[in-house]
Structure formats: structure tokens, C-alpha cells
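Lab meeting minutes (informal)
Scribe: AK
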Amino acid sequence: SRFLEVERPRFSKASRTLAFVYPYLFDSIPLFYRFYLCAVESCTEAAILVHYKHTVFAFLTCFIFASHLPERLAPGHFDYIGHSHQVFHVCGIISTHFQMEAIMMDMAEGHHRLLPTSLLPSSLQTLGSMGICMAVSLAVIGLCSMSLRFMPEP
């Protein structure tokens, strides 16, 4: 997107914003579903409030990145302190803090439910699944490397 910045600055900005927004929204689908369930069933989980804070700061981070506030309102006054890029990073860090706090609260709250019912995999199962993954990855690399042999030289 940086190569397009001179020719098409709006498209460049939109593609860079989309590169961060799309994965966040996709990864947050379970969280948004949990918000929906809590709104319908009026849940009393303590972590939901912290998840709300995380989500608000995440959207604020995106808004500040896309809008270039406050320097757009007062050009020249926020060149060194208070620039939108600095505020963007501060909001992102606060959002991440709330996200980690909510995850720790969820883990502490749900730990007693998960521990008795879950069976830990054995060492053989862990090493076996790692070996299968490595073998499949090496097979894909080998097939792609072999296909290069049959391509004509430029």
C-alpha cells in the first residue's frame, strides 16, 4: 500500500486500515456473539465490562488512525506531542491491556469448569501431532520445490 500512496492516497489508506480492521473483526466474532448473548440473557460476568472497554478502545484506535485527529483540526499544533499516530499507539496499548485483563478474568472464572473435564494429551500424542504437522509441511515444501524444476527458464 505504500507504493500507491503518491498515486492513490485514499486507496492506500483504506487498504492499510482494512489490513488491521478485517482480522480484528474476524477474530472478535466469538466475543461479539458473547456480547449478544449477554445482552439477551443479561449475564453478570465480571469480565464482560472489561471486554466492553477493550472493544471501545479498539474502535477508538481505528477511528484515530483513520481520521488523523487532532492534527486535522489544528494543523501545526500537534507536530511533536499529541499527534494522531501517538494517540493511536496509546489507545492500542490501553485496548491490549483491557484485553489481557479480561482474558485473565475469564481464565480465572472458567478454570474450575475446564480442569476436571479436560484430559491433557500424552507426550506421545503431542509429539505425534507435531511430527505429522512437520511431515505435511515438508511435503508441501517438497512439492512446490519440485514444481519449480519443470518451469521453463525466463
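Next up, CB showed the second protein from the same session:
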Amino acid sequence: MKTNRRCRALLAVSLNLMALLFSTTAFITTHWCEGTQRVPKPSCGKEKKTNCLNYSGNETANETNQNVVHYSWETGDDRFLFRYFHTGIWYSCEENINAAGEKCRSFIDLAPASEKGVLWLSVVSEVLYIMLLVVGFSLMCLELFHSSSVIDGLKLNAFAAVFTVLSGLLGMVAHMMYTQVFQVTVSLGPEDWRPHSWDYGWSF
């Protein structure tokens, strides 16, 4: 009986620890939403030979003379590049089309002014969600290692369950608020950031 109770407590502690690690990792990563952005192709030059607009005529003359009218036969989506991006609560990172690596900027700055309050509420809810998970984890550890009587263990277990359920509800609310902010930012955010297509990432 005592062995079975200890095994159940150990399983609960392990699952709670996994939830705590996953939620903390998700909170600090930038893969809540990911997809592609459609951006105009840059002009071809000495350093840029691919994925660029090659205008007719002398390239070197076009680069030096600003009064030359540029013509390109590319139309529709051929005039654009589709770059990969991923976004979290803190940062939005996109593929750098002119060089290797990524370029990141603050998602809080990208969000419309009308949604910044909701975004900060989402951040506070995420922090409370993690803190409640920590409290639940601590109570479960207390039950596992320091609870001598069955009644004390059941009391600690009940409190741990309450804190864990509350943390789950807060986490769900925080995710919903972030989703709302992201969808509004997709519609009203800066022109050079708006996604062409997107989906939820592994952090979400």
C-alpha cells in the first residue's frame, strides 16, 4: 500500500516536472507561430546573383545611374521571395535574404498599440502559470519526501492538484490571449512583417 502510494507520488512529480520544463522552454522560445512572409526580391548586383530581379540592360550602368528606368519581365509571385519566420512572445525572427542567419525584432514592438495591453496580460498569465506549476511541484515533492502520515499526504496532494489545475487554466487563457494578439498583428502589423502564410509552432 505504502509502496503503491509512493510510486503514484513519484509519477505525479515526474509528470509535473516535465510540464514545468516544457512550459518554461515554450515561454522563452520563438516558435509559437511560424510560416512564410512575402517580400520583394532585391535588385541583382555584384554580390547578389540569385533570388533577385535582373533588370534588362547594362547592370553596372543601372547600379551607378539612378535616372535609368528599370524594367523586369518577372510578374506575379516571381517578383517576390518567400522567407521563413518564427515568432514567440518576446521576439519575431525572420530569414535574412541578403545574408546568412536570421534577423530578430521585438514582437512587443510589432504588435498594434491597441493590443499591447492584452499581450502584457498574456505575459503575466504565462508567468503565473509557471509559478503555480512550481508551487504544485513543490507540494508534490513535499508529499513524496516528507509526508509521514497518509492524511498529511492526501492534504498535500489535494493542494497540489488545485494549484496544478489552476495553472492549466491560466496557461490556456494566456495562450488564447497571445493567439488573439498575433492574429490582429497579422492584419494590422507593419507591412514588412505581415505573414503570407502561418501556422502554430512546436512551442505553442
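CB comment: The CA atoms of residues 46 and 60 lie 9 Å apart.
No objections, moving on.
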